[in-house]
TrEMBL record:
It catalyses: ATP + H2O = ADP + phosphate + H(+); Couples ATP hydrolysis with the unwinding of duplex DNA by translocating in the 3'-5' direction. This is DNA 3'-5' helicase. One of its GO terms (cellular component) is DNA helicase complex. GO terms for biological process: recombinational repair. It comes from the Bacteria. The lineage of its organism: Bacteria, Bacillati, Actinomycetota, Actinomycetes, Glycomycetales. GO terms for molecular function: 3'-5' DNA helicase activity; ATP binding; DNA binding; hydrolase activity. Residues 629-709 form the HRDC domain. Belongs to the helicase family. UvrD subfamily.
Amino acid sequence: MTARDQAIEQLLSGLDPEQREAVTAPPGPVCILAGAGTGKTRAVTHRIAWRVLRGDMRGQHVTAVTFTARAAGEMRDRLRGLGVSGVNARTFHSAALRQLRYFGTRRFGGQLPELVDSTLKFTAIAAARAGLQTSRAKNFDLTTEIEWAASSLIGPDDYVSAIAALGRDAPAAPEDVAKVYAAYIEAKRRAGVMDFADVLAYTADLITDHAATADQIRSQYRFFVVDEYQDVTPLQQRLLDAWLGDRDDITVVGDASQTIYSFTGASSRNLLDFTRRHRNASLVRLVRDYRSTPQVVGLANQIIGESKGREAKMRLELVGQRPDGPAVTAEVFADEAEEADMIARRCSKLIADGVSPSEIAVLYRTNAQSQAYEEALASYGVPTVVTGAARFFDRPEVRQAVVALRSAAKTEIGAMPLSEAVPAALEAVGWRPDAAPSGGAQREAYEAVAAIAALSEQFLEHHRANPDEDGPDPDLDAFCAELSRRASEQHAPAVAGVTLASLHAAKGLEWDAVFLVGLADGTLPTTFARTETALEEERRLLYVGITRARERLQLSYGLARNAGGRERRLCRFLAPLGLGGFPRPSDPGAATPKPRERKKAKVLDCSGCGKPLTDARDRKLGHCEDCPATMDEGLFERLREWRVSVAKQDGKPAFTVFTDVTLIAIAERCPGSDSELASLHGIGKSKLDKYGPAVLHLVNGGEVTEAIAMCDGES
């Protein structure tokens, strides 16, 4: 067996039969129908590597298109791990913009239009020129509608007839929208700018209209892979067709049951019609779910099993591959405030029991639901990460941290080992590994900088694991270069914190524990979903949310929006299932029962003045902030020193061992037994078993080094 044959055999080992079939399908059109958690990224990266190792082409001849910069970065990292470099793994817009900047002077006479991130002001200008009275909210809706039309290859002249044929609601009178749309195009032309839809359209035009450009691009890129193919818009498909020309060496991967972006112009039609369009296409179905427990998989299959419409004809029934896990739980709360408080309390308990905050997510239908959970989690000192907020590298604290690192690289800090240089440099922005704030916006900012510090450790570990490839340990300059690469690709590191995300933003992500909240009819499905097509997309959205969970899944809703408000019904997709904790109406007109009485929280009095404690932090410590503390300062410092070392051993942030508030409580109470230690906030059974002996050793005057050794190998 040749070295190449051995490499190929090693590449294919570990794949399941369906994945292997997808990877080794002959060159030409291939359609991979991949259910949630079935290893689609593994399949497509191995297919690219298989084609390269066989000698079909070099990595530089491959274009892999994803829908997020994060997914593109992950794909590049996985391909590097398989020994394949040079693959052009990008989003549609990134790949098109790169080509447009290189070849675009031929179309624009030497000067490309400026790309604008936000086109809202051009919509406002266009609305004024069209004589339409608008507001900021109205302009936002008009912008969204224009983006949909452009992505759907619908121009201003065809807009009115097109939406009439589709039965689509317009944000204003259709004739007025068409006028604004035409004026918007003119406003961009006058200002010499282009939007993201223009980038795709101009690149497709460039390839179609200029044979020399087409020949050069097609000779460079010979094999195409398209991820999330069910979300491709007509405009993106037009660009893809231009890239391909008369060739058909393309692999697409998608899942019709995860079609949730029709509001952007995305259509599963291209996925559904792929084998009809390419008669010689190979079709492979991936159904083995390696992500979720059978309990989660079973519920997902129940939800999508009732789907209707064309997408339902290509639905996949997932087969769970993991051992049994906890049952899916369902609960009705009195109102949304109680729901947010109880979910925050359970997140806090999970963290106390040893679950990393980054492995917990709270998912909701609309971004407007986020604030209640941000506030509730902050009150329990739980860090959060809001997906869909500012991009990681655009955050002020991240920009400041990167500047501090670059500046430090030019000082004596730059000569220090990377593991010491990064923390030293970040002290300039007030960041220390053992000084996390208790919660809220400050905690979120702290964790963003902590993610950079953690990334430096991963960067160092990667180099040490690949000494022949990467040479000696990297320095601070090399790490700054890695940050620049990631920033240009928007390949953000993971941030420690409970994720708050809309169901749309959660697509492509996964967590150990997921709380699906606000599952009341009218919220999910939204009241705007009036047609069967729209309702089916809402069903698929719920399916996507369910399949984000690996082990724990809790479903919930508030019976009323506000205390004493009108009662609401359970989400219609869940009502017939009879999940324990949820009502199951016997007929469509049945009343929803009231939720069970909830135990009132125990009233805690201050150990100093005796007044009832209401603030979350005060309750955790057992006394008011103004009352004198009895903390053993020496014990507190030794606990902090121990925590930093143990966290480093475990490879996770220090606060996930114990928060500062918990350390203060230990240093004040000086517990003498497991039961006394367990009575403190933030110490669940898992942490008691793991860290209890070491903590009691420190309380009894033991050495920090001995306490650290007691936790060695326990992670």
